[in-house]
């Protein structure tokens, strides 16, 4: 599914290397988690993969289903099936949540050569999916993320994911700013989307989210590299002892 | 020679051979007085404080800069609205293309007819609000209009009229020079909606005087046409009585030169005045909104909401003022002007002004200029929305805040749908 090889990335505007050779392979049907201390490059990885401006890839490659991601515009990556759940979902005043999602769904369908979804079908589907995420009609009508609480924003991300049905989902610190109940709701939403054809990359600081979204593989990232890979037990170890032991071990 | 003398001399030259049209004694007296105002104050020049950002030369010259009519091939604006159509071609009323001038709850007449009657109720209003509106800032082009206009519509509203009247301005002649002067008197407790659309002429000078009596309501929605080469100077003069409402919205797309003056005076307590505008300009586009709202009564509310989207070197101007007189306590005044600059070549020139002489008021104003929000753009693109569509979506969202000032949802939808269509066609 997602394959990253020797990815080196620096900031476009300054001579600062952030990713120093990342290798990662997420198979379809699997959930991979990336944990790591602040500044290790986790969020940068998610932005580079989704096509945000401001980064320069100096070496390496990233492919989704064999297609070179790094050559594509952000919208083309999305149409290919890549989805990033933002750590800080952006507020867009004036653009209705519903209009936004319908435009996105149909733009992706168009890019894939599929027929556009009718307004009626779209409405039916979004209502059903919103209901399971406890997103009410008012939230759907409001401008994108404007006036949403932290939890509402994250639920809105998961709703978008559910509507767009991507192949590869990257969740960037989706647990940040969530209380226990909201975390459960969001995790249930994610778990409902787990299936054999879909890969997940869950970026988090804390093991807590991984209690709800059980990973198959856990990676530890530090200083722009993946320094250790293991099973779910690796997350528990981090929770118990912090990153210091692991970092000391590889130093 | 003083600045005023210079202006007076230049004006005398510009008005060489120009004389007020013939008519009944009352209108001749009004026209002569108006012409005297023009001669005394002089036509605008670049050095005038309120013409610093907009060049008046092509508006004051005797000769019109030719402008080719533009056939956009679209259904006329407001076509889906049930309305009474009043059509002008190059500034001349066209009875054949218009509906019969009649309706429930109001009288409607042509200026060209009433100027020949010995006496008419409009004699106390025609040119009167325009004359009041010359102080403290002169608006000589409006005075010139009062002096020279031979066509226009005179409406007196006595009931609650739900079906709008639509002035439709068609432009057919390359060198047409249109002057129209409309007067609308909304009597106590009455209500009225005016729609205006179309480019009118190669050059257009328009005055709309609206007197809104106590407890009366006036709504105004206009679209200034998509012709690019046209030049227009339009003026609205409004006077608001006690607990009355005045709401005006203007959409402008294209036009090498558009100057929209709006001068409102709140004279009765608890009156509400909203003026809003949305414009989209490209290239050699110049659009100037000059608004002057005077609070002269207690507990009135005024709002000015102006949004401009500019690209490829287009220029937007906003000069907005709220004047609160000493006795206008409890005034609630608000003003916002914003521009979305889609490239580095475009510019927005804003002059927001507050002048407050009362001590118990809430007045605020703001003005911003900015590029499209990159974060928002990336968010949309990351969801699969292509860059051009995402840009348009955000452009539309930006303008929507001004369009939302239109109270009637159906009319607001007309404007939004049209804007959407234009943006979509631009994308190709």
Cα-to-Cα separation, first versus last residue of chain B: 56 Å
CATH topology of chain A: Rossmann fold
The number of domains of chain A is: 1
What structural class do you assign from the helix and strand content of chain B?
alpha/beta
Tell me the number of helical segments of chain A per DSSP (H or I, 4 or more residues long): 10
Oligomer: heterodimer
| CATH H-level homologous superfamily name of chain A | P-loop containing nucleotide triphosphate hydrolases
What series of H and E elements makes up the topology of chain B? HHHEEEHHHEEEEEEEEEEEEEEEEHHH
Overall radius of gyration of chain B: 21 Å
Which two chains touch over the largest interface?
Answer: A-B, 32 and 23 residues
* Topology, number of strands of chain B: 19
| Top CATH class of chain A | Alpha Beta
Q: Please indicate the count of domains of chain B.
A: 1
Low-confidence stretches of chain A: none
In sequence order, what are the helices and strands of chain A, one letter per element?
EEEHEEHEEHHHEHEHEHEEHH
Number of helices of chain B: 9
The SS-based structural class of chain A is: alpha/beta
Radius of gyration computed on alpha carbons of chain A: 18 Å
Largest sheet of chain B: 10 strands, mixed
